[in-house]
Amino acid sequence: MRTAIIVALTALLFAVSAQAQGVAGPAVGLSLPDNVTIDGPAPPAPPDVIARDPDGRATIRAVRVTTPIRLDGVLDEAIYDEVHAISGFIQQEPRAGEPATQDTEVWLLFDDRNIYVTVRAHEAFLDRMVANEMRHDNNALYMGNDSIIFVFDTFYDRRNGVSFTVNPIGGRAEGQITNERAYNGDYNMVWDVHTGRYDGGWTFEAAVPFKSLRYRPGRQQVWGFNITRNNKWKNESTYVRAMPKSMGPRALMQLSMAPTLVGVEVPQGSKNLEIKPYAIASLNTDNAAVPRVRNDPDGDAGLDVKYGVTQNLTVDLTYNTDFAQVEADEQQVNLTRFSLFFPEKREFFLENRG
Questions:
Q1: Rounded CA gap, 253 and 178, in Å?
Q2: What's the CA angle centered on 261, arms 241 and 15, to 5 degrees?
Q3: Phi and psi, residue 196, nearest 5°
């Protein structure tokens, strides 16, 4: 009995000491991978979905849903009333450290196939919003439009991740972040998003399939996650946690400062298989040639294959790659004597290029 009391008191003192030193421990009912140490406060216990500490760090808890979210941009599912929203965004511009002037609510949900990011962006002056860009991966989506950008650090290495951009009319972009420095906007992945609008602002519901992501082995995951909102008409930039003003618009790439995301459970044995065949044909006529060429047919075909061997090992194969063009090439008209440059769009050459 005496030994049991001593052990219990020792455990209590250790827990109090760990809390005082900011060492994170699992919330009640939440299991975490044994080899991961959380860089932030202890995970929030239900019904809370975000915990913040005095140092400005944050830990966010994702919530499992039993029914897939219907992607229509209308936040009418019961889950949005049952689960608390992540809120309390903090300005980076123009008044760093002050609360956002417009509230932003975020839900992080998941099921066996997708992780969902849902946002309700309150806006008192809908007529002042800047939203005029629908071109995929165009820089104006975040430099010239109202937009929301979120990023996942799926290996929790605090250096690399994937980002997703959405504007109020459904324009979107995605890319890879490498070593907190390089951004590869030519990398594309499979995901879906639908936007909506209501009297007090705009919304979106985004679904990112687990098959489109790479992450550590194991069902229980710990990721990094950050999200920012840009109000272009008032030049206000806000984040879910305080970010230094000196970092400017590249602050989202500082994954070492991103909040920690816990509670995500990925499907076991998930395999990603993508097959992209291509075929091209031509018909040539050259009356000046000797002998004359008339209606001479030609063609070619090839194949790209991506297969996820494990959760963090992917095999990319290509056969007879067409280096002339791809379906994602940008349309360009050359009226100069200089050659055109088409950025690489094939996943075979782009994945983990950094």
A1: 9
A2: 90
A3: -150, 175
Please tell me the predicted confidence (pLDDT) of residue 15: 39
Q: What angle do CA 239, 155, 308 make, to 5 degrees?
A: 125
Which pLDDT score, from 0 to 100, does residue 330 have?
A: 67
pLDDT for 25: 46
Q: Sheet harboring 293-310: ordered strands across?
A: 273-286, 293-310, 313-319
> pTM for the whole thing?
0.81
Say if residues 273 and 119 touch (Cβ distance below 8 Å).
Answer: no
Predicted confidence at residue 151, as pLDDT, reads: 98
10-residue mean pLDDT profile of the chain (354 residues): values are 42 39 48 84 94 95 95 95 96 95 97 96 94 92 94 96 96 94 87 96 96 89 97 95 92 96 86 81 88 89 83 79 63 84 72 68
pLDDT of residue 24: 43
- Mapping DSSP onto H, E and C, the string for the chain reads CHHHHHHHHHHHHHHHHHHHCCCCCCCCCCCCCCCCCCCCCCCCCCCCCEEECCCCCEEEECEECCCCCCCCCCCCCCHHHHCCCECCCEEEECCCCCECCCCEEEEEEECCCEEEEEEEEECCCHHHCCCCCCCCCCCHHHHCCCEEEEEEECCCCCCCEEEEEECCCCCEEEEEEECCCEEECCCCCCCEEEEEEECCEEEEEEEEEHHHCCCCCCCEEEEEEEEEEEECCCCEEEECCCCCHHHHHHHHHCHHHCCEEEEEECCCCCCCEEEEEEEEEEEEEECCCCCCEEEEEEEEEEEEEEEEEECCEEEEEEECCCCCCCCCCCCCCCCCCCCCCCCCCCHHHHCCCC
- C-beta atoms surrounding 200 within 10 Å: 13
Q: Residue with structure tokens 């690399």?
A: 160
pLDDT at 20: 38
- Round to whole Å and give the CA distance between 86 and 72: 21
